[in-house]
Design brief:
The complex is a heterodimer.
Chain A (H helix, E strand, L loop, with lengths): L1 H14 L5 H9 L4 H37 L21 H8 L3 H32 L5 H10 L6 H13 L6 H8 L3 H11 L4 H9 L4 H12 L1 H17 L2 H6 L8 H11 L4 H36 L1
Chain B lengths: L8 H9 L5 H9 L10 H33 L6 H5 L10 H7 L2 H33 L6 H13 L2 H11 L6 H8 L11 H29 L3 H9 L4 H12 L1 H16 L3 H6 L11 H11 L3 H29 L1
Helix pairs in contact in B: 2-3, 5-16, 6-10, 6-13, 7-10, 10-13, 13-16, 15-16
The chains are: A mainly alpha, B mainly alpha.
């Protein structure tokens, strides 16, 4: 009887990819048999899903509340007991942000800076990453080791002299003051190099024999070959630049140049009581990065997983 | 230049056919976009490589490495607000800034706060990350990528924005956290107004914000563990708990090291959360080393002194990283 049950279990387990090893173990050892194993599997499945759903609620709750509070009439987010859903939906706070508080300007600044940094850094980092991966030259390993030292240096150490340097270059309080330090990144070069290592040498040599210039090889052979990692790096750079706070806070002193996070931190000091207004501002800051992430997450998540484990 | 090893057979043929063309000739050929009947030597390729590297290396050197070195120099001077207008008045003061730091209780407090944040928040983040990674790796579960996306979402959000959101969630009177706690009989906590609770509150936000990233890396690490090892452990009669400690955890070693080092380096740089949520208070309970550096350097313009703070932070991070590597080595 028991052996018959096990025989019946085996193909089922093999067929269903979701069969858990503990369930397998239960059927294998106990005399309890097929049904009790199935019940146990069911129970552990329910427990796992419950945990997952609770976790998902915790992960999403602050953002859902932010969204909900941004539509509440003034004062409703500061009531007791707290309201989760607006009693009446209003767009007043969004309107006030754009008309009186210049949010459109900050949105423009953030977009301009993030897009420029992303575009330039893609070219700069991919050229360097490709050179480290595929071109032979004297001092390659030494240069690469020197660069990797930079990964353990916290960026904050550089900020004081960098500010003085920017001041001498008259770049304080300009877009370039934020853009230039972001144009090359050691992390980006490492990410590209790791990926470019897999380009077959034969392909590059064949192009060389055909007489293609090195620049042309880069543009027509290498770039198409590393597109997926370029997508990853683009998303990563865009999000990091958009979210960056400390350096823009330091180098931008005039409100007209503020990025969204800097403007938001500034606003939250003046409007600490206006919960709903602040939530609307937070929504507008977060929505663009969330959109980019949700649409392109395939590239982003793959990149995080690949870049970290192998690198 | 000519000593460079040819990359392949084809290249060495080129070397024979055209020995050592001038560097200028190579450069001219490379800059021409069209088909080029001439051969290319390894030296040419080497020159091309430096052209490819030049923009990145110049940018990184001028805007990162140079400032880091300058920071070391700055930290042994009395560079302050007057020096910004007239740098020639700056004097070399040796280790005076460092000596002053050692006698400043606020600095020790900032260092303690930073260690508190990193040593409690770091392991907590890693535990939560590993737990969710295991949960998402369970074979009984479907909709994995859906849940993975949800868990990863906090990581991509703008820190300043979510810090503002959490500041309201932590509100002593109207905050939803206190409301939820009141339902289970806990009396209200003044999260951000009480020196004992402010840092735990910031840690909680940091865990929520960061765990998704580490979770992804753990998932990749878990997927790399061969299934036969689990099967073998199972045949030996190991239950789920023993399988976790005897198979999963040891094989996650390198991943664990990477995650710990990355998390710790990031957490030692705590700045935005206290800047936005508490301004370092109450009673400086959340003033981190970087926040103190920012205030000394960019609010009071004591840049020499602030540079010394930055360097102490660097030394701390370096030592902590080395300790982690050593611990990992001993374990294996």
């Amino acid at each position: 009887m028991n052996s018959k049950e096990q025989k019946r279990t085996a193909p089922l387990v093999a067929a269903s990819s979701s069969a858990d090893s503990s369930a397998l173990q239960a059927t294998g050892q106990s005399g309890g048999g097929f049904e009790s194993a199935l019940v146990r599997r069911r129970v552990s499945q329910i427990v796992l899903y419950a945990l997952l759903i609770i976790g998902a609620l915790i992960a999403l709750f602050p953002m859902l509340w932010m969204l909900s509070a941004s539509f509440m009439p003034t004062g409703e987010a500061s009531t007791y007991p707290p309201h989760l859903i607006p009693s009446r939906i209003t767009f007043t706070h969004y309107r006030e942000l754009f008309t009186r508080l210049n949010l459109g300007r900050y949105l423009f600044n953030s977009t301009l800076i993030a897009v420029t940094v992303t575009a330039v850094s893609l070219v700069v980092n991919s050229m360097a990453g490709y050179a480290f991966a595929k071109l032979r030259f004297r001092g390659r390993d030494r240069t690469f080791r020197l660069l990797s030292l930079g990964l353990v240096l916290p960026v904050q150490i550089a900020m004081l002299p960098l500010f003085l340097l920017m001041k001498n270059l008259h770049l304080v309080n300009t877009y370039w003051g934020v853009i230039i330090p972001g144009m090359a990144s050691i992390f980006g070069i490492f990410l590209i190099r790791q990926y470019a290592l897999s380009i077959p040498d034969d392909m590059l040599d064949a192009a060389r024999i055909d007489g293609a210039s090195e620049l042309r090889i880069y543009w027509e052979v290498v770039v198409p070959g590393i597109l997926p990692i370029l997508a990853t790096l683009a998303i990563w750079t865009f999000l990091a630049t958009w979210n960056d706070f400390m350096w823009p806070l330091i180098v931008l002193s005039d409100e007209a140049h503020y990025t969204l996070p800097v403007a938001l931190a500034n606003l939250s000091g003046e409007h600490v009581q206006d919960t709903e207004l602040m939530m609307a501002g937070s929504v507008l800051t977060v929505i663009p990065v969330l959109a980019v992430f949700l649409f392109l997450q395939r590239y982003y998540i793959q990149g995080v997983m690949a870049g970290s484990v192998k690198g | 230049m000519s000593a460079t090893i040819p990359p392949s057979g084809a290249a060495s043929d080129e070397l024979l056919s055209e020995p050592l063309p001038g560097m200028l000739g190579g450069l001219r050929r490379r800059l021409r976009w069209s088909r080029d009947p001439g051969a290319r030597t390894p030296a040419d390729v080497g020159m091309a490589a430096w052209w490819f590297l030049a923009p990145a290396l110049i940018l990184i050197f001028v805007f990162f490495f140079l400032p880091v070195l300058a920071s070391l120099v700055l930290s042994v001077t009395d560079f302050d607000i007057y020096a910004i207008a007239n740098p020639s008045g700056t004097r070399f003061v040796g280790l005076a800034n460092y000596a002053k730091l050692m006698h400043t209780p606020e600095f020790w407090q900032a260092l303690r706060n930073t260690f508190y944040f990193a040593l409690v928040g770091g392991p907590l983040t890693i535990t939560v990350s590993l737990a969710t990674a295991l949960l998402l790796n369970a074979r009984l579960i479907r909709f994995k990528s859906f849940f993975r996306t949800i868990y990863f979402t906090p990581f991509v959000t703008t820190l300043v924005a979510v810090a503002i959101v959490w500041r309201y969630l932590y509100h002593a009177r109207y905050g939803l956290l206190n409301y939820a706690l009141s339902r289970v009989g806990v009396s209200p906590i003044d999260w951000l107004g009480n020196p004992h609770w402010a840092m735990p509150a910031i840690i909680l936000l940091a865990v929520w914000k960061q765990f998704g990233y580490n979770m992804l890396i753990f998932i990749a690490g878990l997927q790399a563990i061969p299934q036969d090892l689990y099967d073998a452990a199972e045949i030996d009669g190991a239950g789920p708990v023993r399988r976790f400690f005897n198979v999963t955890l040891p094989l996650l070693g390198p991943t664990m090291l990477f995650v710990s080092v990355i998390t710790m380096i990031g957490y030692f740089q705590l700045f935005s959360e206290p800047y936005v949520m508490t301004s370092g208070g109450p009673l400086r309970a959340t003033t981190s080393v970087v926040l103190m550096m920012y205030e000394e350097g960019f609010r009071w313009w004591r840049m020499g002194y602030a540079a010394a703070i930055a360097f102490v932070l660097f030394i701390v991070i370096l030592i902590a990283t080395l300790i982690q590597f050593r611990l990992q080595k001993e374990r294996t």
